[in-house]
Amino acid sequence: MASRMIRVMATALAGLAMVAAATGPAFAEDGYRLWLRQQAPVPAPDRIAVTAPSPKLALARAELARALPATVASVTLARSDDPRVVHLRLPTRSLGDEGYLVRTVTLDGAATILVTGHSDRAILYGSFALLRHLATGGAASGIALSSTPRVKLRVLDHWDNLDGSVERGYAGASLWDWWTLPDFRDPRYTDYARANASIGINGTVLNNVNAKADSLTAPYIAKAATLADVFRPWGIKVYLSARFSAPIELGGLKTADPRDPAVAAWWRSKADEIYRAIPDFGGFLVKANSEGQPGPRDYNATHADGANMLARAVAPHGGVVMWRAFVYADTDPEDRAKQAYTEFRPLDGSFDDNVLVQVKNGPIDFQPREPFHPLFGAMPKTPLMPEFQITREYLGFATHLAYLGPLFTEVLDAQTGRRPDQTVADVIDGRADHHALSGMAGVANIGRDRDWSGSTFNQANWYAFGRLAWDPGLSARDIAREWALQTFDARAADTVVAMMMPSREAVVDYTGPLGLAHLMGTSAHYGPAPWVSDLQRPEWNPVYYHRADRQGIGFDRTASGSDAIAQYAPSLARRYADPQTTPLDELLWFHHLPWTYALSTGRTLWDEMVHRYDAGVAAVAVMAREWDTLKPVVDAERWQKTATFLQIQQREAQWWRDASLAYWMSINGLPLPVGVTPPAQDLAWFQARHVPYAPGNPG
Ligand code: BDP
């Protein structure tokens, strides 16, 4: 009987195996492996020598064993204080805690690739750098790599809620399963940490900036502690978003006034409790007095009062506070673009040493294009931590293809004008002003989707953020190439890079060219709605931003308007004061101009706008054609999903273009330039179109 059962099962299994062989396994190549796809034909741990074993070096060794090509005969992992390494007199002095050096050397008479640094974490980073080098076409001989991160805190901000939803998340539910934590350690937590470590990310804020106080209760601290345990060997610290009013909600106090000693004592004891569970807890991220969140301004205290009070609670444990400058108030009639600077600049010099002020890349809110935030360079006594949005709330979610490398580098490379040749990257690495702290934050685009980020190309934005946080001087194109070579077959790389590089500009063109911003649908922030004018708060309405009327369009931020330009260094302010010297890409951000205004392109403003909308749509068609050519060299599942997403993008780029043009024409009464295709529908049709149940929408 038993043997019959076994025979039946064996036959069934053989059948299954045949089906699998014929069709390929269901999840052959679904993007789960991200950019870490290299696999050694035969894993060979014996090719990797570890001189002083430790948990981190065991991980480094496993990574190398898993992916080291056969061309590499020997790798040695050893700390810089290992006598044999000391003997080599390598230039390790300035590597810092996390920098690595990877060299082909001779040890004990034999050639080996030495991966070294002052810490095991550095060696882990060096191991990933070696694999990256080899996977992107680097030679296996004569290796000489060395790098030290320019930025200390390289942090992902998860806007993940305790109910498993993710605010502005487009890749499925939250990765953190709070319900089964702290007991169940989902293997994905390890895979997440590993992916982050491979690009140098060393911190993660687990919960949404729109925080619930519950995250600070004992059960949730225990859950966070489990995640911290999983992440620790990968060099990743856990941080929490703190709700400023938690002393009232959890502590039963009557106030959360930061100057009240009982409030400060509550936070101190809360910090002590967290550090007992998570000894290397990173600290707090705080969104205060912004979009309805509580904060020190509720008590007429300043943001510095609030930040410092929390900073003093975590300081004895080595923690930091990342205090967001993303503030604007409905009660303030001031141009929204000016409010953060107005509020924070006077506070320069009044923050404690363990506070970083976290500043969005632009003065409004993660728009497809914004000039850099005027606070960069204007608060030299304060470490400023730029905040980028990797999840693309305003750039087509996960469905549209938009590589953000060029957006990130455009900001990082921008000259502040405050000091000769000073860029935003120079400000944020903190060296010029001798800050002990520096940081860069990215709002994560990670969820439970098999491919983590909702699409294969979206993984590139996570990757690019990590690489730039490590070295804000890298080029977006080099990063794209690196990513492409690790993510696809090498034969696809040139085309993939060619698709990626103009992709963000295409989104700018079909959603809001020439410096326009904030034209999207209400709440979900998806699709065009430049006509919206009936929302309660003025700065919620797209019409607040574009100010289009019969004569012209754009927001006058010169001295005749809001004078936001005065928040920039004088040399930049002068440049922005004149539409002739303002970069075309930022023109309508700073100026209100007649539709007939003549541009350097030889077109009128209106004609240029139309031209750019069309260019954006056309660029998507080009990407789709390029992707088609890759069908033979990309695995079926990833190819098909991307091809389908490009079709969606094509349709929606057209929607943006048509709806926007229909609206602008209803305002300016101008005809379309000769030969331009009119919108497919009339304005009313577009205005009636709604997108219910869009993902990531908290409302
Ligand atoms: C806005 C998002 C909102 C966030 C806010 C923030 O729409 O969901 O809470 O940014 O950064 O862009 O706090």
UniProtKB/TrEMBL annotation:
Q: Does the keyword Mitochondrion apply?
A: no
Residue ranges of the Glycosyl hydrolase family 67 catalytic domain?
136-452
Primary enzyme class: hydrolase
Q: Name one GO molecular function term.
A: xylan alpha-1,2-glucuronosidase activity
Positions of the catalytic residues: 291, 365, 393
Signal peptide positions on this chain: 1-28
Q: What is its EC number?
A: 3.2.1.131
- Glycosyl hydrolase family 67 C-terminal domain location, by residue? 454-675
This protein's UniProt keywords: Carbohydrate metabolism, Glycosidase, Hydrolase, Polysaccharide degradation, Signal, Xylan degradation
Reactions catalysed, as given in the entry:
Hydrolysis of (1->2)-alpha-D-(4-O-methyl)glucuronosyl links in the main chain of hardwood xylans
Gene3D superfamilies to which the protein is assigned, alphabetical? Alpha-glucuronidase, C-terminal domain (3.90.1330.10), Chitobiase/beta-hexosaminidase domain 2-like (3.30.379.10), Glycosidases (3.20.20.80)
> What InterPro entries does this protein's entry cite?
A-glucoronidase_C_sf, GH, Glyco_hydro_67_aGlcAse, Glyco_hydro_67_aGlcAse_N, Glyco_hydro_67_C, Glyco_hydro_67_cat, Hex-like_dom2
Q: Which GO terms describe its cellular component?
A: extracellular region
Subunit comment for this entry? Homodimer.
Record family assignment: Belongs to the glycosyl hydrolase 67 family.
| Name of the protein described by the UniProt record | Xylan alpha-1,2-glucuronidase
